[in-house]
Every structure is written in C-alpha cells, then in structure tokens.
Amino acid sequence: MKTAPLFALFTLIGQSLSLAAATITSGQNTAAVIEALGKPMGTIELREKTLLLYPQGEVTLKQGLVTEIDLMDEAQFQADQERLRLEREEWLLDQERRRAAVIQEGEAIRKDKMTSSAFAALPAKDQVDYWRSFQIRYPSVDASEQIATALASYQTELEELRSQQKIAELEARVAQAEKEAATARLETEQLRKETENTQRSTNYGLRYYTDPVITHPHYYYRPPKVTIYTNGKESSHERDRNKQPKPQRSNGIYRNSQSNSQTESVAERAQRILNPSKD
Known about the structure:
The radius of gyration is 59 Å and the shape is elongated. It has eight helices and ten strands. The protein is 57% helix and 14% strand. Among the domains are: 1-115, no CATH class; 219-274, no CATH class. The protein is of the alpha+beta class. Residues 1-15 and 250-262 have low confidence and may be disordered. The termini are far apart.
C-alpha cells in the first residue's frame, strides 16, 4: 500500500506549516498568509468572511485581513495524521475483504447455476438475461462463456420459432381451404334439396300438409264438401259429385283417376249448379 509515502508527505507539510504558523498574526492580509503557509487546499466564501483551508486547520479573513487562526501544533498534527493513516488502512482492508466475499459468492452462484437442471430447462432468452444481470452484479466473476453459450442457444430457438411459425401458417391455410370446401358442399347439398322439393311441389291443385315428425311426408286433404240445396232438395251437382271416383295415390301424390278430357269445364259446372234439373 502507498500510505507510507503519503504520510511522510503530510508530515513534511505539517512541519513546515507549524513553523510558519508562529509567524502569522491577526491583521495580516491574504498575501502574507499565503506567503507564510503556502497556497491553501481550498477556500470557503461566506457572507462576511473567507476561510482558508490547510491540513492543520483554517485561517479566517474578514475584509482581506486575518481575524482568527485555528491551526494545530506539531504534536496534534502528527497524531491526527496517524489517525487518518490507520483509518485509511482499515478502510482498504475492509474493501478487500468485501471484494473477496463478493467474488466467492458470485463463483458459488455461477457453479450452482451451471449444475442446475431447472436453470438449464429455462428458455435461452431467460438464461441470457440472467447471465447479463449476473455480470453486472458480480463484475469480478467472469461469465462471458455462459453468456456466449446462452446467446447461441437463443439464436437456435429463434430459428425453430420461425420454422414453427411457417408451419402454423401452412396449417392455417389448409384449415381455411377445408372450411371453404365444406361450405361449398353444404351449399351444393342445400341447392340439390331445394331442386328436389321444387320438382315434387307439383300437386295439380290438391292441398298437402307436411309433418316433419312423421316419416310419411305428404297428407292429402280432401276439398270441403259443398252442398247447395234448391227448394229444399240436393242439387244434381252434389249427386254427380258423390258419384265421382275418389282420387288415387300414385308415387306419393293423389291424382284424379279421370283423364283431363273427361273432366267437365268450369263453365259447365257453374251452369249446372245454377240451373239444376228438377226431379
């Protein structure tokens, strides 16, 4: 340590200052003080006075003249310098002990992390962040190798993530294509059913009822029976209507057994209803 040369220097300065302090008296100006004691270590400018700081003490000036002298004698100065030297040495030893303890702690933590399976299972980015903060906290412990290894693993993970992202994009495209194909199939099936329903909707004027619960899709509703009485007697139209054959069912559709050529026209039917024959 370099405390011995510094102590000798301060001792020499103190001896010269102690000899010059005897020649300083109140009322001397600043130039005389500097000539006797040398250039001060520092100055403090107050409102009404100025303090000249020296290793042995201070000299107070008011309006440029010495008003107060506070300097240690030779014995006091030597004792004070010895105290400062011991305090300095103790502080240096304490700093050395602290530094050694920090290095020991950092090496123990580094060794523990290198052998920890839980730490090895962490993502590479987390490992990089940890070793960087470790290097800041323990600058005397070298962790450059661990940082380089973690960075290499991190680069590998980034490449894998990019590959997985591309695969995920391809899978998303395939899923979208399958969804569109399924939608197209549903639309085609719906269109086919609508076409079949349109083809089956030809009922030749008969009324049908569809019940979705019952498997048989069609029910024939006979037209309501209309009876017109003329002078209290049943019309010939009703008699002729009762004699007409019932419609027969063919392929799920009720059809009239008579052909279109044998069916009387609407005008003839109306004439027959309005002018019935009398029995």
